[in-house]
Write a structure and sequence with these properties.
Elements lengths: L4 H4 L4 E9 L2 E9 L6 H6 L19 H13 L10 E5 L12 H14 L5 E5 L7 H11 L3 E9 L3 H7 L6 H13 L3 E8 L7 H22 L3 E7 L7 H7 L8 H14 L2 E4 L19 H14 L3 H4 L16
Parallel strand pairs: 2-3, 3-4, 4-5, 5-6, 6-7, 7-8
Antiparallel strand pairs: 1-2
């Protein structure tokens, strides 16, 4: 793959939104660096639902100065708003703690630069697969952003090993996840656990909601055992083209979850006592490839979930209704 100099200096994605950040609402900036990409995906073909290699150089190394230039460009594009940004999600479509994706020297520079350029920052979040999470590396990252809080996101997806390994093809066990979580706790950082709502092989929204709520209960227990701050990133599944999941959609064996299921799952997880952020990115995909409601309620549902992300107020979700749901549960089979 040939990557131009302009691409190497331009982030693969930038998104500004609102979120509940350490006890108060605030602006959240997501920056997706154009990096070499997930080594697991490059080596094995990756997870059945992942299309993020499209945002990478597909293994071509990216020099540290180009990665820093991407971050600088993303921050500069925010103008005066940059001074209010309270959370930075610094992603690379892979693992921040993998040296082949983000070189060790680049990690410290990127984090220090972010803290220096964003004066209202309260939290920095990075992502990694469990096998790259080591206590010393997390401690170094935490030191680079201190006194800002550091969150480490890990794609647990489900507490069920069979679903994670065989259906999602994630490539790591629950035990490996727990070992990574212990390293995060020992380093004094926080955990963000991604839960996938309705992975490949699930035919009903009811089953999908039960699975993520069971997974959230497990995370509550993990939080207690490790004395580890934990929040949930709930990801209603969208269907990128070129994935195994897309093949199932085309064959008529899969549909994305409804936004009613996302609402139901978010409410139940929040009532367990976990902070939860609902992913709402549509990736520019057609309506049949992304979570939605009916034409009358989709916009209202997305707005309500966005408001919930900002406030963590479950009442925002309780107030919704639509004729498409009359006489049926939000977790009725789809």
């Amino acid at each position: 793959m040939t990557v131009t100099e302009e691409q190497l200096a331009t982030p693969a994605g930038v998104e500004l939104g609102a979120a509940w950040i350490r006890g108060a609402p605030g602006p959240r900036l997501m920056v997706i660096l154009r990096a070499p990409g997930c080594q697991y995906a490059l080596r094995t073909g990756g997870c059945t639902n992942c299309g993020y290699l499209e945002l990478t150089t597909r293994g071509e190394p990216v020099p540290t100065d180009r990665l820093v230039a991407q971050l600088e460009r993303a921050i500069a594009a925010q103008g005066a708003t940059a001074r209010q940004i309270a959370q930075l999600d610094l992603f690379c479509s892979g693992s921040f703690f993998c040296d082949e994706e983000i070189p060790r020297d680049a990690r410290g520079i990127l984090l220090s630069r972010a803290v220096g350029r964003l004066p209202a920052l309260r939290t920095v979040m990075v992502e990694s697969r469990p096998e790259f999470i080591r206590r010393d590396e997390v401690e170094a990252a935490r030191a680079a952003v201190a006194p800002i809080a550091l969150e480490v996101g890990v794609g647990l997806e489900t507490v069920d090993d069979a679903i994670r390994l065989r259906r999602i093809r994630k490539g790591f066990t629950l035990r490996a996840f727990e070992e990574a979580a212990a390293s995060i706790a020992e380093a004094g950082a926080s955990l963000v656990a991604y839960l996938l709502l309705k992975p490949i092989g699930m035919t009903s929204d009811r089953e999908a909601v039960i699975d993520v709520v069971d997974s959230a209960r497990y995370l509550m227990d993990l939080r207690r055992r490790l004395d580890l701050p934990v929040r949930v990133a709930l990801e209603p599944t969208f269907v990128p083209e070129g994935t195994d999941l897309h093949g199932e959609l085309v064959a008529g064996r899969y549909r994305p979850p409804s936004l009613w299921a996302a609402l139901d799952a978010a409410r139940k997880i929040a009532l367990l006592g976990l902070r939860v952020h609902v992913g709402l990115s549509s990736e520019g995909l057609p309506a049949d490839q992304v979570p939605g409601g009916c034409p009358r309620c989709t916009g209202e549902l997305r707005a309500a979930l966005a408001r919930f992300n900002e406030t963590q107020d479950v009442a925002v979700l309780n107030a919704l209704s639509c004729t498409c749901q009359t006489g049926r549960s939000a977790t009725h089979e789809q």
